[in-house]
């Protein structure tokens, strides 16, 4: 186990109760259902985030939100920060109950979702679907990172011979990567025009090629979130007007954050532009505790370690008076100043100064509509099958 202590020179929130920063509309733990009612009755797409990929409490909190939105407010799509192809197999399990869900989770290749608590949520969704066959929740992946595994040329041509040849005429052309990406975006759009159906698999294959080309150019930081936003848009079109969807991803993706120096424009920014107030970004944050992450010093080996983060004096969580509550739900509309949130992804740097400091700034509701804040964090328990793959 490794630990990290992070200090800032300006102690702007130390011993400052959150009530001094809000207008009195803050929620308490007992009002979590009130938050769900707001999301359920006023929103169509809800982004459910997390400030670390390896915090157990974030899964527990979001699972309760998901169950509430599904059972009380008719949310019927669950969209995960993972590739579309392996998620389609999980969707079949959730619909029929057939298959080994632990193995299907391992096939995602993403340890943040291959753990005990997420497994429990999927089993709950499967049971719900079997008990409610006319109101099933569909499970989707919106990412396109693993083209070398799930979107090979041979597999595409086998499934779509004629269409696949058109695709690879663009991909293997002589133009610069940026030109090819522009052509592929147009190719993707043309598939929807004049068609009554949407083949998400074909769109996924196009986005995989865009993602692959983006790896060859320097200015590619926005491509991934653009791709995810596109697939969410297509899922919504396929499911019809008014369809309600939940997105499960890192805070940095579901955020409504626009263009910033050295940071990508978030998926949530694109969704807010597409759907306006029908989209809501709900970030999750914690004060202190342990979380799981890949050790930066052993990133090539994908070494997972439990790290400890101690409270800093500059995060929003440090400004909250939890009053013995398990969580606090904060309306970002009521924030009176800028704050920092923890922002820890799959890889963590225990030695300060090597890359970023793992914090993000927020100002009122520009990034999130609501924040669910836990006073503690504990590490997720990755399924043992992950280490045997």
Write a concise synopsis of the structure shown:
The protein has 389 residues and is an alpha/beta fold. The chain has 15 helices and 13 strands.
Radius of gyration, in Å, reads: 21 Å
Could you say what the CATH architecture is? 3-Layer(aba) Sandwich
User: CATH H-level name... which superfamily?
Assistant: EreA-like (biosynthetic domain)
Topology order in helix (H) and strand (E) letters? EEHEHEHHHEHHHHHHEHHEEHEEEEEH
Separation of termini? 23 Å
Walkthrough of the structure:
The chain has one domain: EreA-like (biosynthetic domain) (EreA/ChaN-like  fold, 3-Layer(aba) Sandwich), CATH 3.40.1660. By secondary structure, it is an alpha/beta fold. α1 crosses α2, α7 packs antiparallel against α8 and α10 runs antiparallel to α11. The strands form two sheets. Strands 1, 2, 3, 4, 5, 6, 7, 8, 9, 11 and 13 form an eleven-stranded mixed sheet that branches. The two termini are 23 Å apart. The chain has 15 helices and 13 strands. β7 and β8 form a beta hairpin.
